[in-house]
Specification:
Largest sheet: 6 strands, mixed
Helix content: 40-55%
Number of domains: 1
Structural class: alpha+beta
Strand content: 15-25%
CATH architecture: 3-Layer(aba) Sandwich
Number of strands: 11
Radius of gyration: 18 Å
């Protein structure tokens, strides 16, 4: 279990900052990624950067590696040589992707070779409700994976549909939240009235 991430979820200052600031930061991310009232896929990358910035704030930029090769599909950052996967999901705690692919054969191949290898930081966004920021250590994932087995831990795309990837099942996520080593910070997801125009910062740079 990563003692550094354990520190993150035990730090009173971090806990209060997450509770107070994460909803606003994620709201700004949505505003940046919305077009004609629809949220774009790029919001996921922006949310990921917000979480990485939190790691940098806590542990220092020299201890957080961000330039991860694209071939490392499930690693988003490395903290003190410890690989981390960052995931965000809106609404119910389900549909968390382990791999994005439109190839059903690749999805099947992935499932045959899969075993948890990274710690997971997961943000469950529930606007106008209570969600959470979770830490699922690799050890917790392996325990739940071994208890459930691959067929109950992974959800593969159905044949004949447009496959978007392999997911962790809802049951597996529920068990992960209850694992003795998992940690979480509850978040009240309230939107604020924010005066923000997405082009202002670029306009200011053009003016300089």
């Amino acid at each position: 279990m990563s003692n550094y991430l354990k520190q993150l979820f035990s730090d009173i200052d971090i806990i209060e900052r997450v509770k107070d600031r994460m909803p606003k930061l994620f709201q700004l991310a949505e505003m940046d990624s919305s077009r004609a009232g629809k949220l774009g896929m790029e919001v996921g990358s922006t949310r990921e950067r917000i979480i990485i910035a939190l790691l940098i704030y806590k542990f220092g930029e020299e201890n957080v590696k961000m330039d991860i090769p694209i071939t490392e599909a499930d690693i988003d950052a490395i903290l003190f040589n410890n690989p981390i996967s960052i995931k965000t999901i809106s609404g119910d705690l389900s549909g968390v992707k382990l791999i994005w692919t439109v190839d059903a054969r690749k999805a099947l191949e992935f499932s045959k070779n899969y075993i948890p290898t990274t710690d997971i930081l997961l943000v469950n966004i529930k606007w106008n409700n209570i969600g959470a920021f979770y830490f699922f250590p690799k050890e917790s994932q392996v325990r739940v994976f071994n208890n459930l087995g691959v067929k109950k831990y992974l959800k593969l795309p159905k044949k004949g549909t447009n496959p978007r990837g392999v997911e962790i099942t809802k049951k597996a996520l529920e068990l992960l939240t209850l694992d003795k080593y998992a940690m979480s910070i509850p978040i009240n997801w309230k939107r604020e009235e924010i005066r923000y125009r997405i082009y202002d910062r670029w306009l200011e740079l053009w003016k300089k």
